[in-house]
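This part of the workshop introduces the protein records we will be handling. Each record describes a single protein and holds just a pair of labelled lines. Instead of coordinates, the fold is spelled out as a row of discrete tokens. To make this concrete, we reproduce a full record directly below:
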Amino acid sequence: MDTIAGFFSFITTPVSWVIVQFHAVYGKIFGPDTGWAWGLSIVSLVILIRICLIPLFVKQIKATRAMQTLQPEMKKIQERYKNDKQRQSEEMMKLYKESGTNPLSSCLPILAQSPFFFALYHVLNGIATGKTIGVIDDQLLASARKAHIFGAPLASKFTDSADKVAQLSAQITDVRVVTAIMIVLMSGSQFYTQRQLMTKNVDTTVKTPFMQQQKMLMYVFPVMFAVFGINFPVGVLVYWLTTNVWTMGQQMYVIRNNPTPGSKAQAAYLERLQKHVTHHGKARNRREKTIIKTIVGKGRDRNEFERRFINGLTKAGLVAQPDGAVVKGDSTTVVETEDGTTVTTGGAPKRQQPKRQSKSQRQSGGAAGSARTAADESEPKTSLTKSDQPQDAKTTPKPAGGGSKPGNGTRSKAQSGQRKGPQRPKSPSKK
């Protein structure tokens, strides 16, 4: 560890200078020799570093999303070239190059803060051994050696002997209790942060070896922190505990407000967004409009949660526009189902088929129809009907010398709308 810390000694002076500046501020409040002054100086150093690393954190999120998008393609390559590892690696590199992604991008924040971590370790190790380092002179060195955090010296370790701890004016029991609690908190925060990422912000529709690796790291990293933590000074434990808490809070914010598509976090976010948009009748800010615009632009490629969001707006009488705005829609709406098909709801009522009548209803209806027909006989007819003569006229004997059948002449005159051309003669009724 000393070799690695010495390799990053070029940044030791800037780190020690920042700690001294914060100590000058907190020393006036809590006293220059107190653990609060030196402990808060280390916490402030962490916050300053993490603020500077926010752009890298944003890049890490984009790289992680891009890697999750490529998981189906990566799985296909692994299955296709499972017997040829060299060809599999070549195809993977080709896929990374074409998509513009880099697997190491997700590790940028950790790699970027590593120099500060080792520089801080080098500073605290110098305090423990009584050596001036960076801008920390003899006076500041003596003040730092007097500083205790809950009874544990700033430069003490879990593995220190009782004699070494006694030189720092402390007891071995206090040191080990404080360091053990801090190691547990450090490992627990790391585990919770990784578990939160895996359970809430991962696309559950994609099952790939990458997810299995992430699950394995969820258990490996806390164990690594616990193993290496017993060799870290209390000040370094304060550093790592602070940075883990910062990472946990930062990730909670990202998961809540910018979740991964297809994850449980996206389902919860879209549910909240739907309630807000339905209540106000519109998208409240540019960020909400951007999200709605992205969902509308996907079309049939929307996932289950995005379809549910669009359908929820539709049922509330709202329509999401391509530019991200939300307006009130008409009564005719289109609802998208889970399989991508659309169903039209609302609008004009559908034409109803007449109900089937019973035999008694049809008979009563027939009698009423006969009565209406008798009442309408005086009106002129415009369609093909039977003869208008009474029944006894049809039984008049046929005149001598031939001629047409009884009633035919009258029938042809009464039917003004009859078709032209020869007509099929009607069969005479039998008595």
Summary: The CA atoms of residues 60 and 106 lie 5 Å apart. The mean pLDDT is 75.
